[in-house]
Amino acid sequence: MVPTKAGIALCMLVAPILALAVSPSASHATGGGESPTTADQTRILDKRNAERLLANKGLTLQWIDWDHRGTATVTRRAGVWSLHGRQADVSGPGLLALDGTITEIGPDYFTFQGKITISNTPDPGRTCSADKTWHFAVTQNRRYYRLREFEWCDSLTDYVDIYF
Q: I need a labelling partner for 59 at 20 to 30 A (CA). Which of 45, 53, 117, 134 fits?
């Protein structure tokens, strides 16, 4: 079989596509350790609120204590913002814990993808834990972001607040 000009042109077009199809992807070749894509990075739509989160003044759950705040640590790595928070009851076993990623920061709100756990408060043995997308917002000019999912576990209303 003698190759024609059209056949050669077709091979020149198809060969690079086939090479890409059979070569290992970048994530497989590097063990999946490269930087997150733009889609994975935290979307910052409001600089003022991003600064508020970085400089936050702690968190509370009303069942534990309004006066002794827990810590809420926001870290940035390769464009991804993480939130790790904890408030422990100094006089009992009550605990609030947050661990996950801030996916978006906008005017007076942020979205958090991660796990929130409340245990042994307000009643011993009560445990609420969920890993999902959560919404925090500032309402009525308050000085904190409040979790907008109030009754996410049982019939009790949980006020999780992050102060700025």
A: 45
Helix (H, G, I), strand (E, B) or coil at 155: coil
Rounded CA separation 16/23 (Å): 11
Please answer whether residues 54 and 74 qualify as being in contact, where contact means their C-beta atoms are separated by less than 8 angstroms. Answer: yes
115-159 pLDDT, tens per residue? Answer: 999 999 999 999 999 999 999 999 999 999 999 999 999 989 999
Spans of all domains in the chain: 1-34, 43-163
Residue 19 DSSP SS3: helix
Report residue 103 CA to chain centroid gap.
Answer: 5
Which of 70, 129, 128, 133 lies closest to 101, judged by CA?
A: 133
Contact of 121 with 158, CB cutoff 8 Å: no
Using an 8 Å Cβ cutoff, are 105 and 43 in contact? yes
pTM of the model: 0.76
